[in-house]
Design brief:
By secondary structure, the chain is mainly beta. It folds into two domains: 102 residues, Immunoglobulin-like, CATH 2.60.40; 112 residues, 2-Layer Sandwich (TolA/TonB C-terminal domain), CATH 3.30.2420.10. It is built from three helices and 16 strands.
């Protein structure tokens, strides 16, 4: 009698459109640019409609699986030291397991150098690099100081010049783009100097690789 009653209750719930919500699953694998798996990656999954979040970490095989989510639209974020944050989007449908493959990109290097219009102060270079277990940051071997242009000094031009550059796998500087500059002569002086910088290249799993760098040069007039 009890079994018949339960069956009747289930049928009634179905007729009324009241059915249990089915939990969905997202699984995937995370790789570095060389194709190696990346363990210990922080995974954050966010429901774009409700803001609810789930967290996990990749296994020693670079895989992850998160369950218990309702159908809907989600953002998947992956963070690991030495790599850029990766974001993917997925639409979960009822009764399906969503699988994704994520390839991380190497993180950028930040460097800074102060250039004075008077005297020759010691170069102050700084690197802020997020380094993972298999990522070795580039190391500067040769730094050529920019020459403060006389025309810029006569105009009182000073301030930061920010360059975006690519350090090639052979340690030379590749593409150079000026992203911030208070004066075209200061930008030209910065580019001319940085083109001659040389590095011990970044390495991924022991192999030289290209990496993007942001170089901050501060041109300061003597008081």
């Amino acid at each position: 009698m009890e079994m018949k009653l339960r069956a009747g209750q289930v049928c009634l719930a179905a007729l009324l459109g009241v059915v249990p919500a089915q939990a969905q699953t997202i699984s995937g694998a995370v790789y570095d640019p060389s194709g190696g798996v990346v363990p210990g990656v922080s995974i954050k999954i966010t429901n774009l409609e409700t803001g609810a979040t789930w967290t996990a970490a990749t296994s020693e095989y670079g895989t992850f699986e998160v369950s218990g989510m309702a159908a809907g639209k989600y953002r998947i974020e992956c963070e690991a030291r030495g790599f850029r944050t990766a974001r993917r989007y997925a639409a979960l449908r009822s009764g399906e397991v969503t699988k994704t493959t994520i390839v991380l990109e190497l993180g950028a290097v930040d460097e800074s150098l102060r250039v004075s219009a008077k005297g020759t102060p010691a170069a102050s270079a700084q690197q802020n690099v997020r380094v993972g277990g298999k990522v070795d940051p580039p190391k500067i071997l040769k730094m050529v100081r920019p020459v403060y242009p006389e025309a810029a000094k006569s105009r009182g031009a000073a301030g930061p010049v920010v360059l975006r550059a690519v350090i090639l796998a052979d340690g030379s500087v590749g593409d150079l783009t000026t992203t911030v500059s208070p004066d075209p002569d200061l930008a030209a002086a910065a580019v001319e100097a940085v083109r001659n910088w040389r590095y011990e290249p970044a390495r991924l799993n022991g192999r030289p690789v290209e990496v993007e760098t942001r170089i901050h040069l501060e041109f300061a007039l003597a008081p």
